[in-house]
Amino acid sequence: MNLNNQKINIWDLGDKINIKVNKSFIDFVNRKIKEKFGTKRNIHKKLITKYRIPFTTFRIRMKRGYNYFIDLEILLNICNILKIPLNEFQNNIIAYKTRRGYNYIENPKLPIEITSLFDMLIAHHIGDGNVVNPKRGRRPYFSYRQYDSKFRNLYIDKIKSIFGNLNYSNDYFNNKNTTQIYFPVVGSDIMFKLYNLNITSFLSENARIPSQIFKKDKKFLLAFLIAIIIDEGHVDSTNIVIGLKNKNLIEDLQIVLSFKL
């Protein structure tokens, strides 16, 4: 795999993802169901061999006027049954989130491109970030505290540039007193999985630059370094100083600097 041009499709995000799609796509799918199977009940019989869902629930969620999120697996399996190209399906997704999640991505950028800004966000989560590990089966996610409004807004812009527009239950965009931002759970999942990280990988004493990043173009390393400087650096005379207690991370940063970025 070319680490500089990685892309992640909606079906690569794993289970328990909920989506919304264009109503015109629902119309298209329902027409295909009628052409091939006659009734929704007939396709439901094939669907439940792959994804268990009561027929009544399935029928309601396939209505054009259904305005809530539905399980990704439902439409993904229907597209496979009807032989609808998955790229066509993905292009019609207008929002997505993790199941039971509050914040969601709307007008998403799919497939998700792993740009240097993505790796920059990982560095922010090492620097001034924190992993929230909720109970009751919910997934862990990042939060980021930044007191400088300019850098806080830039952090949000980086998320938008990778994932799409954000719909938060908390109005981070207009609340001047907000210094802490919660990163979308679905984006946090990608960060953990892509680089084989876990919640302890972001603790101040454990954090390291993911080994895969060292194999990428220099712009990825530079982006990572800039984010660490924003969060952990300061200017001393004419020098930029990064103060860390994590010796391994310091050594990682020394390797980055040796590449003469």
Task: Write a structural description.
By secondary structure, the chain is an alpha+beta fold. The chain folds into 2 domains: 9-106, 434 Repressor (Amino-terminal Domain) (Orthogonal Bundle), CATH 1.10.260; 112-258, Homing endonucleases (Endonuclease I-creI, Roll). The protein has 10 helices and 12 strands. The protein has a 5-stranded antiparallel β-sheet with strand order 3-2-4-5-9. A 3-stranded antiparallel β-sheet has the order 7-8-10. A hairpin with an 8-residue loop joins strand 7 (129-132) and strand 8 (141-145). The two termini are 24 Å apart.
- In spatial order, strands of the major sheet run 3-2-4-5-9
Tally of helical runs: 10
Provide the domain count: 2
**Poorly predicted ranges (pLDDT <50, ≥5 residues)?**
none
Question: Average pLDDT across residues?
Answer: 91
**Estimated radius of gyration:** 21 Å
Structural class comes to alpha+beta
Question: What is the succession of H and E elements?
Answer: EEHHHEHHEEEHEEHEEHHEEH
How would you summarize the topology of this molecule?
Blueprint: E1 7-8, E2 17-21, H1 23-37, H2 40-47, H3 55-61, E3 70-71, H4 72-82, H5 86-91, E4 93-98, E5 104-106, E6 112-113, H6 116-127, E7 129-132, E8 141-145, H7 149-163, E9 165-167, E10 180-182, H8 185-194, H9 218-232, E11 233-236, E12 239-242, H10 247-258
Antiparallel strand pairs: 1-6, 2-3, 2-4, 4-5, 5-9, 7-8, 8-10, 11-12
Helix pairs in contact: 6-7, 6-9
Primary descriptors:
five-stranded antiparallel beta sheet, alpha+beta, 261 residues, 2 domains, Endonuclease I-creI
